[in-house]
Amino acid sequence: MATKIYFGTDGWRGVIAEDYTFDSVRRCAQGFATYLLEKGKKDRWVVVGYDKRFGSENFAAAVAEVLAGNGLKVHLTEDATPTPVIAFSVVKKQACGAVNITASHNPASDNGFKVRDENGGAIDPDGLKQIESLIPDDLSKVKRLTFNVGLTDGKIVKFDPAPDYIAHLQNLIDLQPIKDAGLTILVDAMWGNGAGWFTRLLAGGRTRVIEIHSHRNPIFPEMKRPEPIPPNINVGLQATLDHKADVLIVTDGDADRLGVGDEQGEFINQLRMYGLLAYYLLEIRGQRGPIVKTISTTTMLNKLGMLYNVPVYETGVGFKYVAPKMLETDALIGGEESGGYAFRGNVPERDGILAGLYLLDFMVKTGKKPSQLLDLLFAKVGVHYYDRIDTPFTGNREDREALILAANPKTIGGLKVSEQVTLDGYLFRLHEVSSGEDGGWMLIRFSGTESIMRVYCETTHADKVKAILEDGLKIAGLKV
């Protein structure tokens, strides 16, 4: 009996050659194929793409064989392709879904199996559970069509998704002013799928794009993992200073997330970045519409919602919650704490490329550097400070949850606990003890993709960040 496969936030991730094997990937593909067939999708097309991790193109080919063997047709990307481009291709090709072989920001040892629906967005939690339940226990129930036969019969077709995606971007944003602006843009592709995209999109003008970490190297040198936060982006921050660049744009391993450094080589954390993108759409573009945010991201969005009279919806962590809510509400923007942002007019999927272009457009339209854009945002909503501690988790999860529930703290970091929310994890809203003014929040939750606990906080008090996190660790039983 093979090991049981459990789907997390986007699908399944595992350690290559340990649990992530060709057999396990084929079993996952069979589960997804059965799920689609039960929805009446026989003879429909499915997009299959992959990243630059070890063996990803071979795992993608194995997926294509299984899907084709089940009476589905496959559009297989001809090269490693950013997740947002794969997602857009689902809509462009009128496919019924997608499989993406990627572990996104995980360490080099891992790979993954992401699934997407007919909108190019994440499949909701009930759908993920259904796919998981349909994964067979062994290979005896896996149907396959040999790859070369699939190509010959036209059931597997390789394609280049770039031209259609680029044409789509040009409908969303005028790139010429960015090309003509004379900016120096440092791009860190983190050895991943974002390599070459900004250079290609912004060539032909006075703006100069300098790329680092732009070729394939699946061990991800100079970083712990291709996640666009410090210390992984420290080399990029230094390169920004060395080249006197105006901005650092960082895309993670599959280019669905965005990290940003300012002209002074300082990281702009992902909560502040979400605030900037929402502010850009509301103020600079004059657009209106709901904002969708996960429980783990910034309350600056709530304040912008009040200022611009737009609703703000809060969801659990992960685009399996964000994407359905965006579709339900026709949201202007949706995003999460990890640096993934999605936009109306695009597919309901994180898009690090479009998010980076929107930031560049913000700079060009205002004539301001990234640090100055933050000043504009803070003038509207006040300064907010954020940090997060990830701790490997061992032992019984239920016992740890019981410990958190039993703590019932009255104060955290010297701020009053005004509310406890258990939408996803354990969120404590904080207020000033004396004045009752907003003091931020602290969240404890278990990762949906790794065996770690996360303690997050955002506060309007720079001097209280450490104390809030320390109290969070104590409440979680991770520190005495």
Strand coverage percent: 15-25%
SS class: alpha/beta
> Rg from C-alpha positions?
22 Å
Catalogue the unreliable spans.
none
CATH architecture of the largest domain: 3-Layer(aba) Sandwich
Strand elements, count:
21
What is the count of helical runs? Answer: 16
Q: What is the CATH fold-level name of the largest domain?
A: Alpha-D-Glucose-1,6-Bisphosphate, Chain A, domain 3
Query: Which CATH C-level class of the largest domain is it?
Result: Alpha Beta
Strand order in space, largest sheet: 1-5-4-2-3-6
The main sheet comes to: 6 strands, mixed
**Proportion of helical residues:** 25-40%
Principal-axis shape: globular
Describe the structure in your own words.
- With 480 residues, the protein is α/β, with parallel strands linked by helices.
- It has three domains: 11-164, Alpha-D-Glucose-1,6-Bisphosphate, subunit A, domain 3 (Alpha-D-Glucose-1,6-Bisphosphate, Chain A, domain 3, 3-Layer(aba) Sandwich), CATH 3.40.120; 173-381, Alpha-D-Glucose-1,6-Bisphosphate, subunit A, domain 3 (Alpha-D-Glucose-1,6-Bisphosphate, Chain A, domain 3, 3-Layer(aba) Sandwich), CATH 3.40.120; 385-475, Alpha-D-phosphohexomutase, C-terminal domain (TATA-Binding Protein).
- The chain contains 16 helices and 21 strands.
- It has helices at residues 22-38, 56-69, 83-92, 125-133, 147-153, 162-172, 176-180, 197-202, 234-242, 270-284, 300-308, 319-329, 352-366, 370-381, 397-407, 465-475; strands spanning 11-15, 45-50, 73-77, 98-101, 110-116, 156-159, 184-188, 208-212, 247-251, 258-261, 267-268, 291-294, 312-315, 333-335, 341-343, 385-392, 411-412, 415-421, 426-431, 438-446, 452-459.
- The strands form four sheets. A six-stranded mixed beta sheet has the order 1-5-4-2-3-6, sandwiched between helices. It has a six-stranded antiparallel beta sheet with strand order 16-21-20-19-18-17. It has a five-stranded mixed beta sheet with strand order 8-7-9-10-11.
- Helix 8 links the parallel strand 7 and strand 8 (208-212).
- Helix 1 (22-38) crosses helix 4 (125-133).
- The longest helix has 17 residues, at 22-38.
- It is globular, with a radius of gyration of 22 Å.
- The two termini are 42 Å apart.
